[in-house]
From TrEMBL, chains A, B, C, D, E, F:
<keyword id="KW-0223">Dioxygenase</keyword>
<dbReference type="GO" id="GO:0046872">
    <property type="term" value="F:metal ion binding"/>
</dbReference>
<comment type="pathway">
    <text>Amino-acid degradation; L-phenylalanine degradation; acetoacetate and fumarate from L-phenylalanine: step 4/6.</text>
</comment>
<dbReference type="GO" id="GO:0004411">
    <property type="term" value="F:homogentisate 1,2-dioxygenase activity"/>
</dbReference>
<dbReference type="InterPro" id="IPR014710">
    <property type="entry name" value="RmlC-like_jellyroll"/>
</dbReference>
<feature type="domain" description="Homogentisate 1,2-dioxygenase N-terminal">
    <location>
        <begin position="5"/>
        <end position="279"/>
    </location>
</feature>
<dbReference type="Pfam" id="PF20510">
    <property type="entry name" value="HgmA_N"/>
</dbReference>
<keyword id="KW-0479">Metal-binding</keyword>
<comment type="similarity">
    <text>Belongs to the homogentisate dioxygenase family.</text>
</comment>
<dbReference type="GO" id="GO:0005737">
    <property type="term" value="C:cytoplasm"/>
</dbReference>
<dbReference type="InterPro" id="IPR005708">
    <property type="entry name" value="Homogentis_dOase"/>
</dbReference>
<dbReference type="GO" id="GO:0006570">
    <property type="term" value="P:tyrosine metabolic process"/>
</dbReference>
<protein>
    <recommendedName>
        <fullName>Homogentisate 1,2-dioxygenase</fullName>
        <ecNumber>1.13.11.5</ecNumber>
    </recommendedName>
</protein>
<dbReference type="InterPro" id="IPR046451">
    <property type="entry name" value="HgmA_C"/>
</dbReference>
<keyword id="KW-0560">Oxidoreductase</keyword>
<dbReference type="GO" id="GO:0006559">
    <property type="term" value="P:L-phenylalanine catabolic process"/>
</dbReference>
<feature type="active site" description="Proton acceptor">
    <location>
        <position position="292"/>
    </location>
</feature>
Length: 318, 318, 318, 318, 318, 318
């Protein structure tokens, strides 16, 4: 997949159409009565409609079939996923996890979804306040199956093995020392190329942002230009045997069936997208004479709480 | 009740006295050592004392007997009311309720309180954060009984049958296509005139407000002039058989007895009152050339969360 | 004029119609194609259209003839009015003015306008930032003449002699130990009843507000209920000899002629109005054990600067 | 110039390089010790370094010769440009300008700079607070000459004749019913194709922004996708006879000479750029049942004052 | 302990060193590679690193042995401490506690920790939102034992018996009519001198602050000068039998052992410290003419919620 | 003057008394009817009374004679001081000043006041908005003379020669590579020890603050601990020949006579004080891998404008 293309910038108002369908992106309006190629226009909201510009997030997707054309969701096993912190006794000792073992594909086939393990968390998705940390270990690509997190955003940190993520917005290849963010409600499917492991930071009720830099100035830490968003890519594929959509909703898993691939978005525009970032581009700043700065100086992305200066979740450059 | 009078304006600093007791409203101070007619002065707070002007809410009530002159509260059955969301499994499918059946008064007498059913919700009243949606179905007026919600505000939306609401501030007749708001701590009694149904939006920890209009300008959507607040009305009535006050507190019901009607407020002033609104007065705004605006353009009232632009609960014009 | 009526409340959304024309206030909308009695609807804006609710000010006036029906403005003598501070050398010594002499009506007729003297100021009206302090001394009522300040708000403090102020919103009688505020753009005429003197605080670019009270709580200092706004009053009067409108614009005076009284507003509604306040109602608060509080504890009204906690102009109870 | 390309989005973090120099944009850092092609890296700041993300503006330009390589500035005639409002008496009458006459090129050659006339204004550039409105009338393209406004931003509204604007960021063709914005410090040259006229809104100390939409929601008025920013274009051109840079600084004009074209930026990235907008894309919103909204509903771009909801300057769709 | 010294001021950037070790506080930097006297430098954070100045709290402690040199924590009995409010039924009646009985030391030895009883609360420490009210009753000093609250801040109000509190920052003697605050993460030990009782306000996720005074001005209520912070004091004491550190974490108690006293901080500096206040210094303010102010006028300290003007917890002068 | 003592901390609530008068600082209140030693209590305000805690500045001074006991101010020559920027033509070229020559004391005696030269500025003191930059060159100490700036704060940067500054709060010795700040309204006298030169940054309407550090965290740049405030020092000295107070007011100089030294403050407390800082303590932070940060990374002190992130004046470490 060396040929994957990306658009640069953080939080840009992007626009992209698959080159196989020139003119598929409507011009001058969002929701024409008849879209080019007979596509269906859908708005995917990433914020309350009434948020101010700086936090107002939405994208318009133009797709071959509407996303609601699926059978009802039914509960499925949550495996090692949980959001119920009361089941665990608190422990004030400093903890460190040794790397989770990755199952051998010769023994058992595990894909990204079945390989999710919740490590810890606080708060809950229902109250739109809190975070969760998961690990993923897998050895098999997801086949005719996608995942959608209705609870919050996933910041994915591969530790071993690159992952190819197909989303409604296009494809991203993410390798160790890169991170990617799949925001709430975006459907995606993960292909792997061997034994694969990483961790996931999930945040409810707030999106990841670049920190304000204060006296550091207009450049520094993770620069917005170095974030990469995929370009539109679609498949017009019928899946007679059924395509499975797995939905995490209020901390639990549900699945439904449909008879076509959800990655049928021919064109899209908007500022609510998945994106990735290479940690090598981080512009490191620190004390140059004596002492050293607090670890916040390594902030890559942060999700704000409602107290000024206090984050709900911050990802630091390792 | 065609003769009911109202004062116009949203969030005004109102003043009203029952015309049967001229001069009952003290002038120039709130809490004289001896009030006119020997009334008792009580402040009903709708906010922290220290809130800034724009959110500071309180009214002064001048009443025949103090509101605390009642026997202790004891728990009572909560019927179909609940605030315990963990008892219900989440369901990611889109849901729609068919209209609740209204019991026939020939079969069973049901008043506004016993006819309350909780439909859904999130958060809880204890943490002062969250919402609940209830239905009410009833066929009988409340007799020698009033309700008081210690948990939050009720926005009541009649669907079938008008309701006559007697409050400590006066009387309101509310018909379908009208809404009314009874704020936290205000006692009220509901009279009905047949089979009656509606729904109730309850919000904890925030009051309903008119939305800021941004570029829409100084007029539009629900205009403040069209909100109506009752005028003072009292009854000086002893209830030998006992008057029942039902209190919803932390999601549960309690009742106590007293030997007089609580609607004994002869005069009052303040900016914390019940009010009603006729949805026909809504000044509809939308796109006039192409596309259409997001549903927030139909916002009648909204209760703010602590994230800018994100509401805890918004009532849209149906 | 003992019979003058007022509506109580500060910043309320008021509505009023002259009882001689019942139904003159349009219901349910602001700007009907045909108003009752053939009146003209005009919006008087007291803020940018896009201000948030708490600072958004406007009123709708329904009048017999449109306010623009006048001849062009021409410059007139400014007398002792000025906004040019560079003409005066600064003086760091503490200053106190002895009372200005009031001219005898037997010697010279002076009305409110010709009796204006600027005492001091800072900033200017053009930049919408600054204040001015004027004195007025007069002995004669304004006849077929009104004043309109396009630059800012007048807070008028009578020292000697009551003044009867006729405005587009109705009439107010203001006596010593009372104050009144005529906001930007409101036309008014002043009648006096002998030798009359007072001072005027003028502020540009901000309106007077009640201060937030902080720990003082929900009541105290000037209570909103004690502010009084006039009720609608109109005259349908032709002035063949010409009615003069004097306009202060960018610190200078201009006048124009029209052939009818501008006080022809039959009904109005809105939250942008003139108002008055009796200083006896001020709820004085201070230290009760030792020391004494700073003078800000006597704040009646304040006009905010854009620095938190710093006012552009504050009027303290004398 | 039909072939001009633009990038879409408002306030995006853009990146562009002239296709004649592939790889000219440095990757992964802004200021390498040796830039590709031996280019000079320069940061153009559009805000204080310490502004928060939402108002922090800067671009990095990679150019053939440094922009400071010019001779000193010397004063030149300001023609009809001024910033001295005290020279004009105020006039409270409503004013309207009839269209300025455009000089015939057969009689006199007038380019964009010499054809500037100040119409009115307030505040001044020194205090970083205020606005100016200019007209331009011209019949001749600027030759070996560019303009740079050190005082504020220009929002240009062509009335007659399209204009081709060459900037350090690339080229834009702007026709009547389009607008463009050239921000503070950006050098540009204007080519015309006949008798040409338009007006210019200039604002000091604030940039133009899209308004927050409030209840209108995530789409409406001027949509961010419809703003267009030029792509990188350069010329490596020596001008033996001297290239003139005209600088407006504190309301006055200065010029200096250099021996090369300033449009030598081979690649650039950043969020501080010129842009244009076609007013046909404006998504008109208004009342659909009765009354009409305030004119703010036609806001295309607005420059904020420091009072919430009050703009320094707003451009409304005509 | 009459000789105990304190530093005055609220929230000051303090610096203190035990006079037995002159020069123990490093100058000009916080974290030298070798500290004076071979001390260990530790930063104790009282806020997120990224909080703005007004809420950024941290201190640097220079100690003989690192604080992490202890054995692992193990759970211990929580006695009457709890944070589980769901176990108690709500009760809307007004409640008042009669004084808790203090056990006789002749019958049972009870120290500060074992004498803690939770009275009521709301929210929880995990979500960093909520409060708890505890009582303490004890008759015996803590021996070779200290307490550390990882959940929030303790505001301690002695009712009977003075308490001598040894902290990592020094010693404080607190008597009835005084209060003290021990903030999150600060280890302390309590000595008593007889039968001792008091109550404790605990707040999660916010620190106590002095209220903004609004119109009261620059002086009044609890003045910052009257708050007292201890001076550095250390003991270099080995405890062969084991020193016990008790940790409250997520509402439960844990203990660990170490072989030295934790009060080994020779010098420290910073703005995150314990402090005490004598309620006699409270500058009482109230109405002096009529009515009386709301109880907020007696605010000593308040912990803010995220709603303007609404506190999470306020301590009023009794 | 090696023995000068200072208190450490920025913006602390300090308290100090001259050791020659133990107990001179009143305890438990600010304004006793009779102060210790018969001193006069005076409050020196550094902000509006109503500013929130974080910007509320004032000190209480206890002095031998009241500060108002002086004869009236009269204008004096302003020398090279000015605030009139319109007298100078703007110049867009980059400017650099060569060092001002210091007059020889053998030729002419010049003290700090007579050696002041204004270099440039913007805004003005009357509107409380703007800055000025002055140089000082002098060779003689001020004798029986002090200076008081009623317009704004002085940040003094010695370039050659240390200066001994006597203030109402005590004495400070400031050497090259140190800076000091004398805030608005504080009287001071300057002693020099040879040919002396430096520059002065003056800001109107805002005080200098430490910048918020954002991701830099809780430590870095100028640390608050390294700022030094003088300790109380007084002289009880009659000056029969007259002591001169020079006052800069609205950009002009005035002087008055009194018959005693103004440095008669025996004790004081408060958070509004002069202070100094040694630039060697600046904790330098910058990029450590590639590129370099914007100059704001060297911010020592900044005075905020009313636009977020934009300063009125920033002093960078040279």
């Amino acid at each position: 997949m060396a040929g994957l293309k990306y658009m640069s910038g953080f939080g840009n108002e992007f626009a992209s159409e698959d080159p196989r369908c020139p003119g598929s992106l409507p011009e001058g309006q969002n929701n024409p009565q008849v879209c080019p190629y007979g596509l269906y226009a859908e708005q995917l909201s990433g914020s309350a409609f009434t948020c101010p510009r700086s936090t107002n997030k939405r994208s318009w997707l133009y797709r071959i079939l509407p996303s609601v054309r699926h059978k009802p969701f039914t509960p499925m096993s949550c495996g090692d996923l949980t959001e119920n912190w009361n089941d665990v006794e608190p422990d004030p000792n400093q903890l460190r996890w040794k790397p989770f073992n990755i199952p051998k594909s010769s023994e058992i086939k595990v894909d990204f979804i079945s390989g999710l393990h919740t490590v810890c968390g606080a708060g809950d998705s229902k109250s739109r306040n809190g975070i969760t940390i998961h690990m993923y270990t897998c050895n098999t690509s997801m086949t005719d199956k996608c995942f959608q997190n209705a609870d919050g955003d996933f910041l994915i940190v591969p530790q071993q093995g690159e992952i190819l993520i197909t989303t409604e917005f296009g494809k991203m290849m993410v390798e160790p020392n890169e991170i990617c963010v799949i925001q709430q409600g975006m459907r995606f499917s993960v292909d792997v190329f061997g034994e694969t492991r990483g961790y996931i930071l999930e945040v409810f009720g707030a999106h990841f942002e670049l920190p304000d830099l204060g006296p550091i100035g207009a450049n520094g830490l993770a620069n917005p230009r170095d974030f990469q968003t995929p370009v539109a890519w679609y498949e017009d594929r019928t899946v007679a045997t059924g395509y499975t959509v797995v939905n995490k909703y209020q901390g639990k898993l549900f699945s439904c069936q449909q008879d076509f691939s959800p990655f049928n978005v021919v064109a899209w525009h908007g500022n609510y997208t998945p994106y990735k970032y290479n940690l090598e581009n981080f512009m490191v700043i620190n004390c140059v004479a004596f002492d050293h700065a607090d670890p916040s100086i390594f902030t890559v992305l942060t999700a704000k709480s409602t107290r000024p200066g206090r984050s709900a979740l911050t990802f630091l450059k390792p």
